[in-house]
Structure formats: C-alpha cells, structure tokens
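$ ./design --mode recover --in tokens.txt
reading tokens...
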C-alpha cells in the first residue's frame, strides 16, 4: 500500500478542484492520498444543483468572489480562509470511509473536541452542530471523499450568499439541506486552520502508517490548466444547471414588463413577455431578442433586430441591462 500526503496554499477553487482531479487521475492500485486545500470567498455547489436556486451568484461575483461547481453531489457550501478542505483519494480496494472519517476525528480530538458521524455525509459535535460536510465520487480508478472543516468561517456570509434568488422560481435539481453549523473555534478558541492542517497530517500517519509527502511544485501543468479552464467557464458553473422556470417584472418610465423564461442549461429555451407599454410591438421584439440566449445576457445585441426603431432598441437595451443584473 502506498500512502501520500499533499497540501497547497492556492486559494482559487477552480484551481484547487482541477488539482484534485489531476491527483485522482493518477491514483494507482493500493494508493491512498490525503490532499489539503483552501478556497477564499467561494460558494461551491454540487454537480446536480441549480446555481440560481442555491446562491446569490451575481452578488458573490460582483464582490470578487467565486462560484464553483464540483463533480461530486451534495449541497451548496460557503468557503473562506477559516475553512479547511480535505480530500481522500484512494484506489477502490483501499477506500475505507470509516478509516478516512476517523482521521478527521482523531485530528479534532487533538484539540479536545469530540465528534461523531451523522448519517453518511456529516461530522458533528456532541451537541449536534455540523462543522464538516462531505461528498463523494467514484471512477474505475479512484474513489473520492472530500469535505470541509469549519474552523473560523464567517458564518454571516452563509446567509448572505447561500440564499436563493428572491424572484419566484420553479427549478429542478438537488436542493441544499439546512443544518445547524458551528466553528471549531467555538469549541476551542485556540485552534487555527494551520493547526488543523498539522493535526490532519499527523492523524493520517497514525491511521495509515508511513506516507510520502508530495511537493505541490509541478502542479502548474497542462492537465491542470485544461481542467481549470473548464471549471472556471460559464458553461460549467452555470450551464450545467438543471431546467428551471422563472419570472421577473419591472416598471420603466415607458411601461411595465413581465418576463417569463424557461431555461435549459441556463440558456433561454422559451420566452414570453407581457407589457402595458403603448408600443404593442415591443414584447414580441424582446421575445425574439432573448430566445436562445444565455441567461446572463452575454452576446445579446439589439442590432440583431434591424426591424426595430431607434426608440425600440433603446427600450430593449434598457430591459436587457436590467435582466443582466438580476442574477443574484
């Protein structure tokens, strides 16, 4: 059996998840690897979640944050530098969830924090508060368990970003489950993320025996860069969202409009616009303009409508600018 440990200090979630895939793709029979990493100012959603329903993505990105979609299931989570992520990647015959979870528990016990499992996904305190959520994936080569450790997360951000849009939405996809959460610093103010890194490394050795520590040098390679480009793309972050329907309304100085959208992969597959504007042609022009476009209005141009007058184009562009800003 070959045991490996690696940790990085790059705080970009797309890069960190690309590194995780790179490491998992290189697991050989008999291998077990523990990978430690951190994301800053990030919402991570599960593979089968609808980005619009799970978080205020535009607010997050407008403030310089990151939306990331992982390849595993589970719900949406918020990461900052008060959170430590861990990944166990193992060949199928060496994968052992109980042993892997025990590494985390042993690390917590070094700070006099007793924990236990809750179902299959969570590690919770004796008082029932969640500080670690986990998700899983399987390939023929490798099984992955990755999870979070809330050490000193700004919990006010959970409610700020992990809240669906206030607009009415009928959406498919896996919904996040709300849980009572806490930070490990609530239980032991002395613990830090750096301390927990060291504790996990030590606990991994205690559970699995001798291991080889891998250097992060060399991770900036073509394979990681290619996956990074995929994970940072709009199509991956938003376009993988399941089908949904949504409605928006706004009053302009030239009239009120109501826009009903059906989205597939966050591309507009159906569009219906209603308005009390005196210009009766405007709703039809807007439907023609939006149909088939991306939900974030990328690539929408009123110049596509040569039949529209200058005044109509002005009003249509005003509506498009409004729509492009409602993706919370």
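writing sequence...
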């Amino acid at each position: 059996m070959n045991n490996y440990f690696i940790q990085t200090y790059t705080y970009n979630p797309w890069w960190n998840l690309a590194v995780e895939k790179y490491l998992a793709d290189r697991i050989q029979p008999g291998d077990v690897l523990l990978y430690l990493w951190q994301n800053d100012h990030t919402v991570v959603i599960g593979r089968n979640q609808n980005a619009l329903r799970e978080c205020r993505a535009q607010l997050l990105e407008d403030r310089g944050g990151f939306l990331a979609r992982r390849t595993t299931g589970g719900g949406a989570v918020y990461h900052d530098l008060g959170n430590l992520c861990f990944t166990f990647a193992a060949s199928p015959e060496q994968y052992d969830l109980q042993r892997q979870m025990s590494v985390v528990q042993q690390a917590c016990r070094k700070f006099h924090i007793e924990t236990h499992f809750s179902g299959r996904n969570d590690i919770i305190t004796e008082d029932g508060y969640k500080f670690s959520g986990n998700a899983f994936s399987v390939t023929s080569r490798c099984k992955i368990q990755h999870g979070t450790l809330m050490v000193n997360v700004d919990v006010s951000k959970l409610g700020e970003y992990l809240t669906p849009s206030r607009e009415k939405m009928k959406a498919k996809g896996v919904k996040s489950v709300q849980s009572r959460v806490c930070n490990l610093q609530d239980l032991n103010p002395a613990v830090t993320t750096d301390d927990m890194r060291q504790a996990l490394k030590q606990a991994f050795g205690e559970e699995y025996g001798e291991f080889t520590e891998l250097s992060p040098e060399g991770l900036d390679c073509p394979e990681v860069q290619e996956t990074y480009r995929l994970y940072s793309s709009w199509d991956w972050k938003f376009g993988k969202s399941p089908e949904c329907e949504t409605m928006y309304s706004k009053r302009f100085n030239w009239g009120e409009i109501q826009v009903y959208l059906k989205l597939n992969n966050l591309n507009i597959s159906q569009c219906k616009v209603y308005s009390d504007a005196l210009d009766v042609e405007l709703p039809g022009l807007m439907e023609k303009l939006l149909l088939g476009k991306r939900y974030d209005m990328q690539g929408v141009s009123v110049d596509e409508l040569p039949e529209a007058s200058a005044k109509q184009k002005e009003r249509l562009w005003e509506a498009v600018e409004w729509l492009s800003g409602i993706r919370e």
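exit 0
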